[in-house]
Amino acid sequence: MMATPGMAGQERVLQLELRTMAHAGLVGFPNAGKSSLLRAISNARPAVASYPFTTLNPHVGIVEYRDHEQVAAAFFGTRPRMVTSMNVLMMILLSLCAVADIPGIIRGAHLNRGLGISFLRHIERCRFLLFVLDLSAPEPWTQLQHLFYELEQYEPGLSQRPQAIVANKMDLPEAREKLETLKSQVTQRVIPVSALTGQNTEELILHLRELYDGYLQGDGSRGVEPIRW
Ligand SMILES: Nc1nc2c(ncn2[C@@H]2O[C@H](COP(=O)(O)OP(=O)(O)OP(=O)(O)O)[C@@H](O)[C@H]2O)c(=O)[nH]1
Ligand SMILES: [Mg+2]
C-alpha cells in the first residue's frame, strides 16, 4: 500500500433548490379545484378545502395507462406458444404519466406575490400544462388571461407549452352557462369536468394520454432527460 501526502480540503457552500418534475402541471387560481382534480384522476391524495392556498407544496400523482390491446396483439399474433406467465405479466405494459398539483397562482405572482415565484418554478419543469378554471367564477376566461400573463412575465414562451383547458365545477348551474362563452373565447381544447362528481374525467385522462404520447414522440422530449417514474 502506498500513502501520498494529503492536501488541504475544499469548502463550498451550496444552495440547492428542489423543483418538482412532472409531465403535466395543473395550473390555476387558488380554489379552482386543482387538488380535487388530481384526486379524481390519480392515486394522489392532496388536501382539499374551500379556502385559497390550501396547497402550499406541489403534489405529484401518477396516472396509469394499461396498453393491453397493443401488447397483447404483439404476443398472441406472432408467437402464440410463447405465452408464459412471464409474458402475461409483461403484457400489462404500463405507461405512467406524472401530474403535478401546483399551488395557486394569483395576479402579481411573477413579482412573487403569494409566493408566486416558487410556484412558477414548478410550472417551468412541466412538459405540458392543464389550465384549470373554476367555471362558476364570474368571468373564468379573464382568469386564463391573467394566468398566461403571469407565466409569460416569468419566462417568455412558458404559456405556449402543449396544453388544454380544464373547465371545472361543471356540476354547478352557473358553470354550465359559461361553457359556450369560454369555448368561443379560446383556441385551445376545452375539457368540461367536475372534479367533485368525477363527471367527464375520462375525457381528461384520454387527452392527457395524447399530450403524453406527443411529448414522447415529438420535440417535447428531445434534448431533455426523459422523466421516469
Ligand atoms: N361544486 C364543485 N366544487 C368543487 C369542484 N372541484 C373542487 N371543488 C371545491 O372547490 C374548493 C377548492 O378545491 P381545491 O381542490 O382545494 O382547490 P385548489 O385549486 O387545489 O385550491 P388551492 O390549493 O387553494 O390552490 C373545495 O371546496 C372543493 O370541494 C367541482 O368540480 N365542483
Ligand atoms: Mg390545492
How would you portray this structure in words?
The structure is a single chain. The chain has 229 residues and is an alpha/beta fold. It has a single domain, classed as Rossmann fold, CATH 3.40.50.300. The protein is built from seven helices and six strands. Strands 2-3-1-4-5-6 form a six-stranded mixed β-sheet, sandwiched between helices. About 11% of the residues have low confidence. The structure holds guanosine-5'-triphosphate and magnesium ion (MG). Magnesium ion binds next to α1.
Please supply descriptive tags for the structure shown above.
GTPase of the mitochondrial inner membrane that associates with the large ribosomal subunit; binds guanosine-5'-triphosphate; 35% helix; transmembrane; 6-stranded mixed β-sheet; Rossmann fold; alpha/beta; P-loop_NTPase; binds magnesium ion
